[in-house]
Specification:
- The protein has 9 helices and 4 strands; from the N terminus they run αααααααβαβββα.
- By secondary structure, it is α+β, with helices and mostly antiparallel strands.
- The protein folds into 2 domains: 32-129, Peroxidase, domain 1 (Orthogonal Bundle), CATH 1.10.520.20; 135-206.
- The protein has a 4-stranded mixed sheet with strand order 2-1-3-4.
- It is elongated, with a radius of gyration of 22 Å.
- The model is unreliable at 1-11 and 198-209 (pLDDT under 50).
Length: 209
């Protein structure tokens, strides 16, 4: 009986986008994974289950990262969808996943696209970050920044954001930059590294007079 209910949930999720108008996410994501993530966002929004679904997806990702046998079984296209659904139902019950999440897992398994889960999770996390007004920014520097410098950098970069947005800063170290930094937002990049400047000078002096 549990398996039957699970299958009904799968059909409900996969047909929702057709029968009802989608709630558009704050940012567009692409590909098959993006379509699943967009439909998931709409379904979760209507159920007021966005935080729960986000937590569920990330929890299952951690399980798949540690349980290789479980992951290989779900990713194996030769395994029957109904067998995957039964196993997923057990995991969902144990972890207390939301109904919307369960329906997504079933749809992926039923359509033999469970190997797209990682991409769906990434796309959904991108949507949720935009929903919260988070703006990812990666700063690459030649040497690690101390806490006070990173705090000041966060303050300066936050001045470029719109009202209601918040900066999510990630720093990386690349010794080849020599000095300075490279700042990468989602839609733009600024190269202020010494290596970049030296490269421009090299181009200038190599030009014929």
């Amino acid at each position: 009986m549990a398996s039957l209910k699970f299958g009904q949930g799968v059909r409900h999720f996969s047909s929702t986008a057709v029968k009802h108008k989608l709630i558009k996410p704050p940012v567009q994501v692409y590909g098959i994974e993006g379509r699943y993530a967009t439909a998931l966002f709409s379904a979760a929004s209507k159920k007021k289950a966005l935080p729960a679904v986000e937590k569920d997806l990330n929890s299952l990702s951690k399980i798949l990262a540690t349980d290789i046998k479980f992951r290989d079984f779900l990713y194996d296209p030769t395994q029957k969808g109904q067998h995957k659904q039964v196993l997923l139902k057990k995991v969902a019950d144990r972890e207390k996943f939301s109904e919307v999440t369960v329906n997504l897992f079933g749809a992926l398994a039923d359509n033999k696209r469970f190997n797209k889960l990682a991409g769906v999770t990434t796309s959904f996390n991108t949507i949720m970050a935009a929903e919260r007004g988070e703006v990812p920014c990666t700063v690459t520097v030649a040497k690690s920044l101390d806490a006070s410098t990173q705090k000041e950098l966060t303050r300066i970069l936050s001045d470029f954001l719109k009202k209601g947005e918040s900066l999510v800063l990630t720093t990386k170290v690349d010794p080849t930059l020599i000095g300075g930094m490279r700042v990468d937002f989602t839609d733009k990049s600024v190269d202020m590294s010494m290596a970049s400047r030296l490269g421009k000078y090299a181009d200038l002096v190599s030009q014929p007079v």
